[in-house]
Amino acid sequence: MVANDAWKLSAVRSVGIRDGLIASSEGRKVRVRISGDIATIAVKGPRIGIMRPEFEYEIEIADAERMLSTVCGGNTLDKQRFFVEDSGATWHVDVYGGILQGVVIAEIELRQETQKLILPPWIGREVTGDPFYKKINMRDRALAHHQERLGRPDSLMPS
Questions:
Q1: Phi and psi (nearest 5°) for 58?
Q2: What is the pLDDT of residues 12-35, one digit of tens each?
Q3: Which listed CATH number (2.40.160.40, 2.40.320.10, 2.30.30.280, 3.30.1440.10) goes with 5-156?
Q4: Bridge partners of 18?
Q5: Is 115 in contact with 150 (CB distance < 8 Å)?
Q6: What is the spatial distance between Cα 23 and Cα 72, in angstroms, rounded to a whole number?
Q7: pTM (whole model) above 0.90
Q8: 72 near 20, Cβ under 8 Å?
Q9: Backbone angle region of 151, left / alpha / beta, with phi > 0 → left and psi within -120 to 50 → alpha
């Protein structure tokens, strides 16, 4: 989790990202992403400790747009990803918009699980592996809250 806005002082660039969930089952998932002018499809395996196998492939943007609008349905998220330099490492700070407006989460890609990591002072609680912070769970809670505010029962929620 991000504890405060001090990370903004070390942000070197950012990119808009749209993520769409294609499938998710037992810790595995397939997602499509448009990040700036690059589109990818990724297959992620279940976590083993803090690591998880991931395979990502570039695809045509037109294909990604079609997948986002037809295959993903409402399972899309928008965020601005900031690249933040700190202690020789590059952190990704994701600032969500849309249904997750206000959520800010930082992550870092480690070269290996045993890599020494110095946490910046703007980093708060570790949430890796916490199901409460899985994007699909955050999205589902936000949708349920939105439906409650509209006075619509959950049975009318799109799936």
A1: -75, 140
A2: 999 999 999 999 898 899 999 999
A3: 2.40.320.10
A4: 34, 78
A5: no
A6: 8
A7: no
A8: yes
A9: left
